[in-house]
Amino acid sequence: MTNKKTARMIGVAPLALVFVGGIMAQNNSIPGNNPAQDSEKKVEASTPAVTIPLSTGTAINASLVGTLDSERCKPGDPVSAIVTEPVVYQRSVLLPKGSKIVGHVVRTGAGDGDGSSALFVEFDRAVLKDGQAAVLNAGIQALAPAGTAPTIPSREKYEESRMAGLVGARPAQQEPSGTMVLPSTYTRPRRATAPNVNPDQLEGGIDHKGLVTPDSKGAFSDPNLRVFTPVSEGSHGTVLVGDKKNIHLENGTHLLIVVQPPAAPTDAR
C-alpha cells in the first residue's frame, strides 16, 4: 500500500466522466451574475474534451472550499472541494491532486424533528487544473472538521486489519435514538421507526494527514449530524440531517466524496 491510495472501484463497467464544456456553461446560472463563475465556464468551453474512467463507488478525498450553512445557503448556490489525494488505479492517476469537485446546493430546510435541519448537496462535475471539465454524479459519504484528531495510526495498517476482519463499524458518541432517516429519491428526508438499527454509527477512520479511508461513512466528531449518500440507481448527491436548527461546515472540512451511478439522460434535476 502506498500513500497514493488505490481508488476503490465498485461495479463492473467503468463510469466515464465526459467533458461538458459549453453544455455546462449553457445550463448554469445566467451569465453576468457571477464574473468568476462565468470566466471559469469560458475556460471549460475552450479546452479539449476529457474522459475520467471512474467507477461507481470510487472514493475521493477532498477539502471543502468555503463554508456550508443551511440557514444561509440557497438552492443553486455553488459548492466546491479540492481533491487532496490523487485517485490512482493500477498506477494510473485518474484524478490528480488539486483538481476541483464542483456542485451546488439543491435545497435546505427543516428536518422532521423539532429543531432539526436538512441540507441537500450534489456534485455534478470535476474540473482539472488546466480547466478541463467532466460530468460527475457524486455525493459526500463521510466528513470530518479540519483538525479532527486521527482515529487510526495509518491507512495502510487500517487496511491490513480490515482485510483480516479485525475492524468494522464502530459506535458513535451517543446512544441509538431508535429512529433513522430513510433516503428515497431525496424529495425530502423521511423518518421511520427502526428500533433494531443504530443510525448513529461511524465506519472507517481518519489518519494524521486528515485523509479518510475509502470505506468511511458518517460525520466524524459530530454526533448530531447524519450523512446519507446511497449509490443505487437514481441516486443524486447527499442529504445531511442535523439534530440542531443549523448545519454548518467550516472551510477546510475533510470530505470523502463518492461517485454515484451516472444520471439518466431524462433525469429532471
How many domains, in number, for the residues? 1
Main sheet makeup: 6 strands, antiparallel, barrel
Distance between the termini: 39 Å
* Element-level helix/strand string: EHHEEEEEEEEEHEEEEEEEEE
C-alpha geometry = globular
Question: Helicity level, as a percent range?
Answer: 10-25%
Cα Rg: 18 Å
Strand order of the largest sheet: 3-5-8-9-10-19
Q: What number is the mean pLDDT?
A: 75
Keywords:
disordered N terminus, two-stranded antiparallel ribbon, 269 residues, six-stranded antiparallel β-barrel
Task: Explain what the structure shows.
It is a single chain. It contains three helices and 19 strands. 10% of the residues lie in helices and 35% in strands. The longest helix is centred in the N-terminal third of the chain and has 12 residues, at 35-46. It has one domain. The strands form six sheets. Strands 3-5-8-9-10-19 form a six-stranded antiparallel beta barrel. Strands 1-2 form a two-stranded antiparallel ribbon. Helix 1 packs antiparallel against helix 2 (35-46). The radius of gyration is 18 Å and the shape is globular. It is mainly beta and 269 residues long. A hairpin with a 7-residue loop joins strand 12 and strand 13. The N and C termini lie far apart (39 Å).
